Amino acid sequence: MGSLLILGDPASARAEGTNSGTLEANTAYKAYADDTCTDPTAYIKFTFQDPAFEEIYPIQDGWVLYFNTPLAENQTGTWESVGDCTLTVDPVGAPLQLLSGFKTEEEAINNTSGHFVVGKDYYSAIPTTMTPSSKDDYTYELLGSLTAIGGDNFPALGGVAIAELTIKPNAIRAPHWHLQFAEVGYCYEGLGQVGVIVPANTIPKAEGGFYEDRIVEEMFIKTGEVFLFPESSQHYLRNIGNEDFKCTLFFTEGPPLNRDQLLTITLQNIVGNTPLGVLGPVLVTDSDIMYTDERVSASPAQTYTSVAQGPDVIEVIETCGGEAPDYYHQGCSSPPEDSPDNAILRAIYSRLEP
Prior knowledge:
It is a single chain. The protein is mainly beta. The chain has 2 domains: 88 residues, Sandwich (Hypothetical Protein Tm1070, Chain: A), CATH 2.60.290; 174 residues, Jelly Rolls. The protein contains 4 helices and 22 strands. It has a 7-stranded antiparallel beta sheet, with no helix packed on it.
């Protein structure tokens, strides 16, 4: 259903009011009483079908009601003034300030009623031939999804970021660090395991002070549980169940000295830029199973593995949420130049990598 917000921002240039009208689906509106209203409170009634929804809302003198209509495609509704006050109901060109969410690419481009980001899915791309040359030369397996909303997409968040993470069975979110922010996760579906390596004097004690030990914790997470990854701690998440493992992640962002600096770093970032002569002795590569330092260093920045550990390096590609994978056309395409939402970020990899 739609979201409603009442703000203390009296309208200055008010159009001629009416007593009823129609409403388009998935559109933001504002409603207010005109200057002739003498009642301390005006009332407006909204009516929608499929799903059926009917409600009366008060609009106190000097206030403006902002609302967006239900999201059902092609659904229309009606509004009417309840009482003696004449109301003005106008579409709002700008998005509502306190509403955001994850959308498909088409929804985000066509929607002007919220600060939305495009969902992202991740697939393993396994070549079926020695010299692949088209998307049909790969088999694709969905590993999960990861989509983040931060202050760039949703200004009302300020220094907070929220992400939605889904990990498929036998998949893992590879070990990584966040250099400037802590991470809290609330898991609402499935069974997972998270691990974290924490420096000394980082985790606060209930009685005050901090734990002095350098701590490695392995936690099994089930539905309804919460975990914390302290700032700059190495951590990972993996699915150890037979169903999807789903969590909502919350971050506190620090102000970077350089907005282009890397805020999240993975093991692949490190391994991919390490000299081969160093990788061999450290990772015990170049063995009889063809697990060579060249193959390890070529591992892409976003790499997931499964319970069936082996020598193969599985390349991961990104798509917009719900779209079919294509090795040669990865990521989300940019919206049309004349799109009202052209400013929505659609980089292949989000600058905000939880």
